[in-house]
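# step 3/5: fold
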Amino acid sequence: MDFSARYVALGDSFTEGVGDDDAARPNGVRGWADLTAEQLARGNEGFGYANLAIRGRKLRQVMAEQVDAAVALKPTLVTLYAGANDILRPKVDIDSLVEEYDAGIARLSATGATVVLFTGFDSRNSKVFATTRGRTAIYNELVREVAEQHGALLVDYWRFGEYNDPRMWAQDRMHMSTAGHANMAKRVLAVLEQDDAIEVPALAQQPEASRAEALRANARWVREFAGPWVVRRVRRRSSGDGLRPKYATLTRPLSLPVIP
């Protein structure tokens, strides 16, 4: 497939790149979308990449804030994942959300761009997030219908068994690690039928933790990550408050030389 010169990535923390820290980049993160753009840009001097995703955004926010901005950039390729932050809320109307999702995908598809969508991850092995598994399964079926109706490509995250390995996740247990993001970039490029030269970092050996060590690790996770997340929900605040998109306009992927 030929994606010409304009790739625009939409969504929340998943697409912004949270979990793959890089102080040299805007918002301090890299992520799978940056890696994907860098691969697509090789050999294409006119390639431009925009990433409008912001952590903490819910689906309706993504549709309202990012879709029109993406259309204005005249993309030839769009990736979009949104909905995980809604699924984690105490109450959610998934059917209503996906109606708005469908309308946004229709707008993006009408540009003629190749559109890539994602299912949600199967959290069956997570002691914390397994309770949302049923919601995610319903969301995924609706996303598959939207993809079929609009001729979008689908990255079926639900079926990626490698993410059952805790080393594919960052310390917050909510976002992919550097290895997880690199692997996701390879998965996306495979759906696009593109070759890549991405190396997934080797996963370090993890000795089995004792019960006491596991309890200490869980307590630290609650203190450093889960607790602050709950506080933000209670205060109706978001981790993305005050943040701007990493790349609001088309730019050259960071790892490649700028073309004069």
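# step 4/5: annotate
Residues 167 and 205 are 9 Å apart (CA to CA).
# step 5/5: archive (pending)
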